[in-house]
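Standup notes
- DV: blocked on the single-chain target, sequence here:
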Amino acid sequence: MEKNLSKSGATNWVVLLVAGITLAWLAVQARLVTAAVGSGLVLVGFLVSLVSWFQMRLEAREEAERLEIEALGRSRNDSALFSESAAETFPARRAREQFEKWLVPVFTFILFVLQALGVWHFYSKLRGEDSAGNETFTPLALAVAAALGFALFLFGRYAARLAQLESSRLLRPSASAVMLGALLAGITAITAGLEWAGFPKWDVYLAWVLTALLALVAAETLFALVFEIYRPRTKGQSQRVLYESRILGLLGQSGGLFSTAAQALDYQFGFKVSDTWFYHYLEQTVSGLALFWLGILWLSSCLVIVEPQEQGLHERFGQPTANPVLEPGLHFKLPWPIDAAPTFRTRELQSFTVGVVADDKLETERVLVWTRAHYKEETPMLVASREQETGGAGGEQAVPVNFITASIPVQFVVRDVKAWAYNQAEPAKLLERIATREVVRHFASVDMDKVMSYGRLEAAAELQQAIQKQADALKLGAEIVFVGLQDIHPPMGTKENQVASAYEQVIGAIAQKEAKILEAEGYRAETLPTAGANSTRKLNHAQARAAKLTGEAAGRSAQFANQLAAYQAAPKVFLQRTYLDTLTKALAPSRKLVLGPTNTTDVIQFNLEDKLRQDMTDLYLEDPSKKK
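- DV (later): unblocked, structure below
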């Protein structure tokens, strides 16, 4: 029977290796994420099965060595010569002990590291994964996965039954791994069938479930390593296989959950926990409690809570009832699967963006420039261009279209929940595709410079009308509230061909030209009026000076004529007055000292009082030009 155990163990790791390679091949060819995660789990099981088979061979060698030593001792009638205290006499047992003491914990730790890396790898892959299966290869993948699952099930059931009958603790891990491979192959077949039937999302969902299972097994491996340090040892008790998973052991043991839990508790605490009255009480009552709570959970499906921003639809056996619309509040229905009440957000603004794939990290930047990406992905669209002539000598014409990228947010509300739910299979995706089609059509019919500058509001209004018209034609029951055009610019291009940078330089040159033109026009508007005002001022100044000089010359000419007449009338008087007037004007600003003679008694009086008014004698002391 030992040969059967060793043969079964070797068969298990060979089968698991083939199964892991097959699932990996299906994952690549059919592009199934579930098969990829399943291949990782199966290959981990292959390592466990290989190590357990090697340990099984060590124990078989130890048993053969023990029988050989006993036979040799009986033939010589000297059992003391081969006592168990002589370790060098039993090299096979020493090799097995050293393997269990050092290599098994090290392998278990390596196994945990591989499981943790697998969880991290599949988690990173599934975060941004969108199922895109190979529809042409899906039928073949379904057939191969189903056949592989059936074959693994037969091998696994045989190995599990053999391990149970022979009480082989080393065959149980490989048997559980083969049964897990059968389950994973079956899940892969189901995923391929759903992909073929038009439900690609289930591939990602089931991959998440398998990743969570791998994370749970990794945590169990870590805890087993820690608990093994503090586990009480009982002499004579067989040591449990450290790298065996109790969770996966449920697949290969017919005893079920309670028997597996009982074995784990007995092994961990060192005594028969399964023989206590509390354990027997739980074993007898937990099934009833589980059924009770399952019944409560089933009856809770009779209650439907519709949130204030939602509306629900009451369905019975997949068909709407007479008055299917459920308003916000608490409603009652028949339990699942008889009645269902899906809810839809009809009283809140919903939105999507056409032309770009958002990126939370890039959208935090407040300064948006053409030469730097501010979205995860931007879709170039064709736009018309009026400028077809080039400055080349050959008279070539440019292509009358250009590429442009834009972020176009579309906001809508659901007005008719029945039309939204029943007229189309996926109304939200359909509305987004309608908007994308209308945007592409509109950009292909408008000028690039217009839509990038003053034509945005007009283009947004036309797009809103076009999207609404198509949505009404398909009876989606949605109302387009807003369509915006923002971040419109030429595509960035590649490192070798910087389209946005070149276009930015052209726009900058045009802006500089317009700035120079406006600056020149401003200088002209400032200089011409200033020059006109200066010329007028200088002309008026010249005319005033000419009038002044002419007037002064005429006055001097008239004065000369009057003085000639006065001289002719009384020459001596005229000369005396002229002399005195000249003396008065010359001496007026000078300081005067009066020196009287000392040999006379004359008295001279000066009246230094201010005159309130002039008398007739003062007129002769004034400027002759002021005489009238």
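- Follow-up: Residues 254-258, 389-393 have pLDDT under 50 and may be disordered.
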